[in-house]
Design brief:
elongated, six-stranded parallel β-sheet, 2 domains, alpha/beta, Rossmann fold, 44% helix, five-stranded antiparallel β-sheet
Length: 287
């Protein structure tokens, strides 16, 4: 998981005269959204406002401010051929010295972003599970690996929560709201029990299981016999990472599954934002 709070703290400690550069307005196409910020030190940076020519211009300008002892400035940048960037939009950028108040504000924003990251539970630390954990460790999610075998959890990235438990299905019941579940243990019966619990979690953006179409048919038969809800069964992604490649290498399956998980999480977030906008509009019009 890419928790940025510790990195931010370290950066600010090492760069007492850093400049905060924030996108204050975005018109048309832009590499990042309004409100995105980065911090610029004399030799290092924290974060990104999209890269490319825009970012290089902002970094150079911020370092001139640092060298001249200036505290604030603003830029209005067209993202077109004149700067060698083809987004086609226009952005406003504020540049402010990161004083104590601003540092606290940015730390709170980063901490809130870290807290809001989706929890992704990987059940099974075998070849695919381990590869998936290493990939998710680089992405903006809270990654967890759960296995009944403690020796399988050795060597996972430090920023991945790894735990050995006797009843992995119980972890699903206590997982945070909106968690995602990927099921790839060494035991089909255990897979089925975990999946049954995960499909009861209607708040989950993603429930996936490694396997074949045959395994899906067997699970569906077992699930129905256990009284599982038919509508919930439709939410199960099985096989995971099935994009027509037919590649069974663990690392490839994990890469495709990681992309699949992020797409499902992104879609859930987009629907949530849309629903909030609809509720606000309804309140304005008295509905």
């Amino acid at each position: 998981m890419t928790l940025r709070t510790p990195t931010l703290t370290t950066f600010l400690t090492q760069n007492p005269d850093a400049i905060a550069a924030e996108l204050t307005s975005v018109r048309g196409s832009s590499p990042r959204e309004q409100g995105t910020f980065m911090l610029v030190g004399r030799t290092t940076i924290f974060g990104t406002i999209g890269g490319g020519a825009l970012e290089y211009m902002v970094i150079d300008h911020a370092r001139r401010l640092i060298a001249n002892g200036q505290a604030t400035d603003a830029m209005d940048v067209p993202l077109g051929p004149e700067i060698g960037q083809c987004c086609g939009g226009r952005v406003g950028v504020s540049l402010r010295y990161a004083d104590v108040a601003l540092r606290e504000e940015l730390a709170e924003r980063i901490a809130a972003e870290d807290e809001a990251q989706t929890h992704v539970y990987i059940f099974g630390a075998g070849n695919v599970g381990g590869a998936l954990a290493r990939m998710l460790a680089l992405l903006p999610v809270h990654a967890h690996v759960v296995d009944t075998r403690s020796d399988e959890l050795i060597g996972l990235p430090e920023n991945v929560d790894a735990r050995a438990v006797p009843m992995p299905e119980a972890v699903v019941r206590n997982a945070p709201q909106g968690s995602a579940y990927v099921i790839l243990t060494h035991d089909h019966a255990l897979d089925f029990m975990i999946a049954f619990e995960a499909l009861q979690r209607l708040d989950s953006p993603y429930v996936g299981m490694v396997g074949s179409r045959t395994k899906r048919a067997r699970f569906a038969s077992w699930y129905r016999a256990e009284g599982g809800d038919e509508a919930a069964l439709e939410r199960l992604v099985l096989p995971i990472g099935n994009h027509g490649l037919g590649d069974k290498r663990p690392e490839v399956i994990a890469a495709l599954a990681a992309a699949e998980i992020m797409v499902h999480i992104g879609r859930r977030e987009a629907r949530s934002v849309q629903a909030q906008g609809t509720r606000k509009l309804g309140a304005i019009h008295g509905r």
